[in-house]
Structure formats: C-alpha cells, structure tokens
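hi! just following up on the protien thing from before. the input was this:
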Amino acid sequence: MGVRYSAIWKSMKEVDYKIDILDTDYSSTASDFDIDFDGFTLNYEGDPANRTNPILASKCTVTLGCNNTAAETLISDIANADEQQFVLKIYKKVSGNWKLDWLGYILTDLISYPDAAFPYKVILTATDSLGRLANIDYKNGASWYTGQETFLEHLFNLLNKTGLQTYFEIDNELVTNGTLTTDTDWIKGPGWTIASGVGAVSVAGYLGILYQVIAIEKGKKYEVTYTITSISSGSIQVLCGYGGFGTDRSTSGTFTEEIICDGDDRLYFISDENTAATIDNISVKPIADEYLISCVQWFEGYMGVSSPFTSNPLTLAAVNHEAYIKIKSDDSLEAMNCLEVLKSICTQWDAQLMQSEGSWRFIQSNQKRNTTLITNSYKTDAVAHTTDSAADIKVSSFNRTDGIINFLPILANISSLYKYRIGSNPYPDAYEDGDTIPGGSGLDLEITLDIDEATPHYYDDSYVSAYDLTIKIGSYYYGDSQTWSTTAQTYTLTGGPCANFRENKELTMIAYNIPITGVMDFSIALSSTAYVPAAFSFTLNSEVFQMVYPDNPDTAIMEQTTELDNDTNTNAGTHKSLSEVFQGDGPELFSVGAIKVSNGTYWTNSYLWKIQATGTAQQIDDLLLEEVMAGQKSAVKCWSGIINGVGIYAHNALVMDSDKYIFSTGSFNANRNQWTATWIKAQYE
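and the predicted 3d structure came back as:
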C-alpha cells in the first residue's frame, strides 16, 4: 500500500491542502498530479426535517486536471479497480503541520469526465463508508461476537467495519536501534562514537553530526524523545530533516519535542563546537490521529462518577452482543447489519456520529449548546488519547448570506421503542461448594439449604432458629447489609419457629449482585441471634447454589414503548417516533439488551441516569425523551444559506445573534471556504 499520487493545492482563500490518492496495490514512490481550480467539495447527507440526525454520512468530490497519459492511466485503473482499492486522504495545513482533514474510499463507479482531448477535468467521488455498513453483518468475521462489551468497544467494532482505520496515522516507532545497543543503523560524523549502549560525542573546533534515515515526511509533525545522559560542555540539537529544528540542549535529562519535518528524511543530532556528551533512548513517532472523539455526559448512579465528569460513560456502560442478534422463525440466528446497530446506539445516547476535521465524532446533541464540552479522544487501537475538559467547538467569526429562515414544528408528543427478548439460561442447573461461580454482570445467586433440626422434648413456642452463613466468592464476602465486602462477614438466615422435636426445613435466600467470578467457599453455623435451648442441634443435609434466572425464557421479541407529552404546548404540534433501539434499562434482569454499568470493580443492570449529577434520576429512555423534547418543546428556528469562513466544520456550533446553531445538512466548497447548508438552533427548554 502506498501513495500513488499526491498534490499540494491552495484554495482561493489561501488555505493549503494536500490531497493523496492511495493505492493498496502500489508500493513505489508517489507521482504529482494536478488539482483543478475547483478543488474539492464535501457533502453531508442529513435530513433537514430532523433536529438531530443520528448518523451523518459524508462524501467528497475532487476535481483533477487530466493533462497527460499518466493521469489518464490512473483514471482507468480506478475505474477498473476492486472495491476499496483506492483511498482519498485530504490534509489541511494547520500551524505549519499537515493535519488529516477527511478520508474515504474512492467509488470506482462514480468517475465522470468529458469526451475530449487533453486537458480536461475528471471528477472523483469518495465516501466515508458509513452507508456501506448496511451491507455488513455485525459479526466478528465469520464468527459471532460473544459476551458483553462496552459501548465504546461496540463503536470501535462498527467503525472498523469501514476499513478506514488502516489509513489513520498511528504512533509507531520510526527509529531503528534507538537504544544504541550496537554500532549499527546510524551514520556517525566526526567525533561521534557508539559504544556501551550510548552515543558519545567529543568534538573540538567543528560541528558533529549523528543521523539516521527514517520514514518521515516533510510538513508532518513528529514526537521526538531522547535522553542526554551526560554533558560537560557544548550543546546538542535534534532535527527532523535538515530544516526541522528542535531545541538546543546543554543540560542532561530526557526531552520530548514535537517537530515539523522540513527538508529531507533524516533524523539528525547536531553537536556544536567543543561538545562533550552522551545520548541514548532515541525515539521518533508520528503524532497519532484522533480516530474517535466522544462527548457523552449521561451517568448512571452506580458508576460513582463525580465532578469534573471527565470519565467517559461509554467505557462504563455495556451491552451483550446477543442484543444485536435476531432469532428467525426457524430458530436460526441472524446478525443485524452494522448500520442498524450503529443507529440504535446513536439514538439511545441522543448522539450524532460523523467524520469531521479528520476524526469520527460521537457527540450528544444537546451538549453542543454548552459554552465548552468535555471530550474524550481515542487512537485507532482504542487507547485513550486525550481528555479535554473545556473543548470549544463554537465558531463566531464568519459571514452569512442568502439566508432563509423556517421552523421545525412543536413536538406535542414523542415516543421511543425498545425491542428486547429474554435470553436462554446459560448456567448449569446447580453449582456446588468449591465450584467457580459467575459474577460481575448483575447476577444473583439463590442458595437453598436442606436442614434437619432437633429440639429437646420440652417445647417453647418462642424458640426460633437462625444460622450464620459464610458466603465467599473469590475474595468477597456477603453480609446482612446485602452487599459484598473483602472484609470477612456473614449473612444471618432465620430458620423460623422450632415447633417439633425433630423437623426438616428447606431454607432459601438470595445473594444479590455477585461482584466477580470466583470460587465458592460456603459454611454454616448456628447464629448467636438464635433463641434455642442448649441441647438444640442441626444437620445440614445438602446445599444447592443456582443462578437466579427465569425458568422458561421467552425468545420472542418483546417491546417496551416509552412516551412523553409536551407539558407546555399540549394542544399543538406533531408526534415524533425515535428510531427503534435494541438496548435499554432492563426491563428484566435477564433481558437481552439490558445495559450494564460499572463502578470500576463489577457490573450491574443500569436503572437511574442523570446528566452529570443534575436533575432527577430516571431510566435512560425517559432521559432520552426529555432531552429530545427539551430541544423542540417550542418551534425551532432553522437557518439555511451560505456561510463563508475559515476553520468551520460540520461538528461546530455556529453562533448567530447570540444563539448557537448545529449543522443539519449541506456541503462545503473548499476553494471558497464556503458552506451551503442548513443549521438548526440549539435551544433547550
């Protein structure tokens, strides 16, 4: 895979772009090609009748100048290529650095050009592949996904089905032998030596150079880390290319710098005259692209998150993959398609997913009305990248023309539909003491004891037996407070009146919310709270441990509809039905699709949600409807027209007449820095 053609293009507004065409079957050097004056146009396909579109897919058209047979060959190769063979990557120069702006697959069947001699224009169309997800089953290749995953993990699974993650920059190591273990891979100038695991320089009267050819590219930013283990005189400076200067260093220590490469493809260490120093642990990595940026601020009480709410609820809430598997009439299984699942997740969180400014963005709609946002970003490996507690997506500096104002109607009523089923029992009929008991997913354990009690021949109707049960799973003990602790405790189970000289009893209790999967260690003793004669005795005949689960689960699809009326405008407006979802709160403990939440140690069923810690705790579907209604309790102002300005993206909130507006649908012309689109007021009542 390699860049087959590359072009630098400047818009009429003096914005620099770099446009690369990658070919998965190409591995040679890139050739130049011409970008026509029109440059490229980015189009987002939203529904202007919806205040928020759960998924905002995008396409890009770029106009090439076909001036020679080499360009004509490229066009022919694209037209005859396999699906996803050619990738369009657009970079924008930001503070001297080429930053990813958009990428997608070139559609081989949407090439158009005139029947004419050179030169002529060729229009290429590329897509972000979100629409393609409708044709991809939500499966792990040929196998089924199994078990529970967080919503963040589900999002990564789904976005990775586009295949575009391969083309985002990762922070892989570019230096060979950065620890200088051997005297190889580096070119040493006068005065430099490599021995004993360090690079040493002792130069008198002239500059010294140590360098290595690495895969760096002019105009891109890199993270350079190195250690000056000792320095007694002079200074050392690192360069990415002969024109990408780092800081001149004259003290020992470990240093990390971000440097934009300029010049050639070499990493240099330059020592000045009379330098005596040693260096080690050299590393150069690309600045990784932010693959996914999320902004979600709904928290379930069990999560235990408090201000400043920088934790990501998407990592603390999960759903089982069974929620996204259909059971057909013949009892065979059928996977939902990836677009169905993605739409369900976006709808559940009242969030919008789009590719914007070089990242996938998953942002809750009403968060855009805030002055700043709390965002969490992730690299392609799903590792957390950065957390920004004051992300500012507002744009106030722009010109607007040809505006037309209309309104979305008042919502009189809104409803959501949660489809679920009760899963089949995956657990054995019974466990024994010493068995491994499953936990960590809101599961409960029913304990049934068969006990013979012996009471002396004299009788007192106030006699009551009671037992202290030691219920230990892994390192956790269950206690009278019906909670688990790593501190030893017991649970007291009342046996009831001792009415007969000899009596057989079946006693049952439930240990709720098993914290972890672990080995069961059970014992029983007569409790000090029992009121029995001294000669009282008991015999434990058997104990049975069973997971609490419905006896006859229903595999049919069940539906839960939640509705909310407009309490301000009850006699006017329209009804809105949200897209159906396949996950939610319960409603049963064993509902397939029941959302689980974590406190960082173990998982349980979700139940009570808030926006951060604000308002009354409620089920997630109720919170969802309240948030949607709050944005359309009265008629919503929409502005359609032309916006001219630099640095405006589809995820931004535009400030018009002191109000914030969120993007709905439209297109961006890069040459003019111009949006022709519809924005909807981010009101909240």
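The radius of gyration is 32 Å.
The first strand starts at residue 2 and ends at 10.
cheers
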